[in-house]
């Protein structure tokens, strides 16, 4: 069964036009899908790279001119057939480990990886010491170290001798 006979009375020219339209539609769908895949790959790679201008944003989120250029460079390298790791290696070679949001563990990046943990441990040690110190100096009325009312008068006498203005401040002397 021939294609033209499938459509009945259609001529061969109409059949060829129909085939051309179907081919164009299918190829545009395939191109759109590959364009979406490329956009997703560009997005995934550029989210892992730090904007060198903004420094707190990824290249994907930044609108700085350099970030736009780097996004375009990633897109071009993907179109050339390079893999994501090859692109990351290229960017690292060109801009250093700083461009990576997750830099590899090395001598130069150890402070980035272990610095927050060290600061957290230091804060924990300081907090524990302060809590212990506060408990040590937290006196109750039942505590042996609590100041008795008679001791307050003795303390006042000592302060009067060392500070002549103390009595006037308390209103005892004029």
Can you summarize this structure?
This protein is mostly helical and 174 residues long.
Q: What is the secondary structure topology, with strand pairs?
A:
Layout: H1 3-6, H2 12-47, H3 65-79, H4 84-95, H5 110-136, H6 149-162, H7 165-170
Helix pairs in contact: 2-3
Architecture overview:
The protein is an all-alpha fold and 174 residues long. The protein has three domains: 3-104, Orthogonal Bundle (Helicase, Ruva Protein, domain 3), CATH 1.10.8; 105-138; 146-174, no CATH class. It is built from seven helices and no strands. Helix 2 crosses helix 3 (65-79). The chain is rod-shaped. The termini are far apart.
Q: Predict the CATH topology of the largest domain.
A: Helicase, Ruva Protein, domain 3
Order of SSEs: HHHHHHH
Q: Give the proportion of residues in helices.
A: 55-70%
Number of H/I helices? 7
Q: How many β strands by DSSP?
A: 0
Helix/strand-derived category reads mainly alpha
Mean pLDDT rating? 76
Please give the domain count: 3
CATH homologous superfamily heading of the largest domain: Cytochrome C biogenesis protein
Distance between the termini: 128 Å
Strand content: under 5%
User: Which spans have pLDDT < 50 for at least 5 consecutive residues?
Assistant: 29-33
Annotated CATH architecture of the largest domain? Orthogonal Bundle
